[in-house]
Every structure is written in C-alpha cells, then in structure tokens.
C-alpha cells in the first residue's frame, strides 16, 4: 500500500432547504492512496457532485476533517486554499468549461498563466502531441467535437502537474467510442505521471477502471 494522499473523517455536508436541512453527506470516511484510480458511483441525486466538490476543497463542509497532501484543509486561509488548489489539484467537470474565445492551446495554457504569469507553450504542445491532439491546437472549442473538448479539458487539468485529478462525470455526454478514449487517457496519465484520480460516473465500464470502486448511498460511502 502506498501513502495516503487524501483522507476524510466523518465529513458532513448539508444544504439549507427553507427551514429544513438536507443532509447530503452523512459522515464520509475515505482514504485515497497516492497514485491510485478511484471511482464513485451512485444514483442521480445521491450526492456524487457534492462529494467531489467537498473532497477537492472547492466546497465547504459542516463537520469532520479533510486532509489532502498533508494539509488540513480547515486550517487554510482563503488565499492559502486557492494557492494549494492551484498547485495540487486538477478538475474536470461534466460540461467542459473551455473558454470559447481562446484556442485549444490557449485554453490549456490558462492555468499556467494564472499560476506563474508566463507561457509554457512548449509544454502544452508536447502534451497535445503526446495525446494525439496536436492538430487541434489552433482551433476554437466550437470547432472540435465533444469528445475532443473533453480530452482537451483533461490536458488542461494536468498542465500544472497536479497530484490529484477530480473528474465529475467526465463521460457524461460522450458516446461509447469517446468514453473509451477518455478511459485510455486517464489510464495513461495515471501510469505516466503517477497522478491520483478520483472520478464519478454512471457508466459501469468507466467505474471498473478504479482499483477501488465506491458507492454513495444515503449519504454514506461504501467500497464495492
Ligand atoms: N446548492 C444546493 N443547494 C441545495 N440543495 C442542493 C444543492 N446542490 C445539490 N443539492 C441537492 O443535494 C442532493 C445531491 O446533489 P448532487 O448534485 O450532489 O447529486 P449527484 O449524485 O451528483 O446527482 P447527478 O447524478 O444527477 O449528477 C440532491 O438532492 C440535490 O437536489
Ligand atoms: Mg452530479
């Protein structure tokens, strides 16, 4: 067993609903081993997106503890947290969120501009080349397919060399062929860079790439 890169203890997350409270996460305990692929399944509305947002430190929680890469998330200031995220974490959302007015290459470079204020053009081009997407470099998001957009979003998520990638339903609107390409891309990134991956999915084929598969049900997470 490798070292644990993410650990949560009794995480609770509720949403206010008028004067009621909806308990979405009811004591989540999870340990994620560095360099592993982990998948989370669960019915629609079971809280998968909420869980991913909380575990990736994008969203707050009501109770419990969360430690990522040795950092106690509750102890970080707003600014510290945002620096930590930029350095440690990559995100891929269900809908690709590429910026429409920038080319593929510029979209990939965006996190680097934010992080260090300068271009690492060659790194982006190398990644596009490695993953067979170099011909897309000067195209705009609306000039490429949905599957290609999703793969570009994954490359953008790894350009800063994150330790963990969180992906919420990355195959949500892809067909079978593109889903398989997406699985291959995740596996390659995991193998070549040792990046830890945590993703949610409705697709059993994608879920099966996890060395651990979890199910979220009634606010609790169980390993399948
Ligand atoms: N911002 C919010 N405020 C109040 N309730 C919310 C909020 N976001 C989500 N919920 C509720 O929390 C529950 C979990 O939602 P969540 O989006 O995490 O589920 P999910 O498992 O990702 O669903 P899906 O598979 O459809 O994406 C749902 O009942 C939802 O209505
Ligand atoms: Mg969701």
State the secondary-structure class. alpha/beta
Largest sheet data? 6 strands, mixed
Arrangement of strands in the largest sheet: 6-7-8-3-9-10
Shape: globular
Bound molecules: adenosine-5'-triphosphate, magnesium ion
Overall description:
- This protein has 224 residues and is an alpha/beta fold.
- It has one domain (4-223): 3-Layer(aba) Sandwich (Rossmann fold), CATH 3.40.50.300.
- 34% of the residues lie in helices and 29% in strands.
- It has 7 helices and 10 strands.
- The strands form 2 sheets. The chain has a 6-stranded mixed β-sheet with strand order 6-7-8-3-9-10, sandwiched between helices.
- A hairpin with a 2-residue loop joins strand 1 and strand 2 (20-33).
- The mean pLDDT is 92.
- The site of magnesium ion has 3 residues, from helix 1.
- Magnesium ion (MG) binds next to helix 1.
List the helices and strands and how they pair.
Layout: E1 4-17, E2 20-33, E3 37-41, H1 48-55, E4 63-68, E5 71-72, H2 78-88, E6 89-92, H3 104-116, H4 121-130, H5 146-158, E7 164-168, H6 176-193, E8 196-200, H7 204-207, E9 212-217, E10 220-223
Parallel strand pairs: 3-8, 3-9, 6-7, 7-8
Antiparallel strand pairs: 1-2, 1-4, 4-5, 9-10
The structure holds adenosine-5'-triphosphate and magnesium ion.
């Amino acid at each position: 067993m490798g070292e644990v890169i993410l650990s949560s203890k009794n995480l609770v997350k509720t949403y206010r609903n008028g004067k009621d409270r909806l308990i979405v996460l009811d004591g989540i305990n999870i340990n994620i081993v560095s360099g592993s692929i982990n998948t989370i399944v669960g019915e629609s509305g079971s809280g998968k997106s909420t869980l991913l947002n909380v575990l990736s430190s994008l969203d707050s929680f009501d109770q419990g503890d969360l430690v990522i890469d040795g950092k106690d998330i509750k102890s970080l200031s707003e600014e510290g947290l945002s620096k930590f995220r930029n350095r440690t974490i990559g995100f891929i959302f269900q809908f690709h969120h590429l910026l429409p007015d920038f080319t593929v290459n510029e979209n990939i470079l965006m996190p680097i501009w934010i992080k260090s204020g300068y271009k690492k053009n060659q790194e982006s081009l190398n990644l596009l080349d490695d993953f067979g997407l170099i011909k897309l470099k000067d195209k705009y998001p609306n000039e490429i397919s949905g599957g290609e957009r999703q793969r570009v979003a994954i490359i953008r998520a790894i350009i800063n060399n994150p330790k963990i990638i969180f992906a919420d339903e990355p195959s949500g609107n892809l067909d079978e062929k593109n889903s398989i390409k997406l699985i291959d891309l995740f596996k390659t990134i995991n193998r070549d860079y040792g990046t830890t991956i945590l993703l949610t999915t409705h697709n059993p084929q994608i879920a099966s790439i996890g060395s651990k598969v979890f199910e979220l049900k009634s606010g609790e997470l169980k390993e399948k």
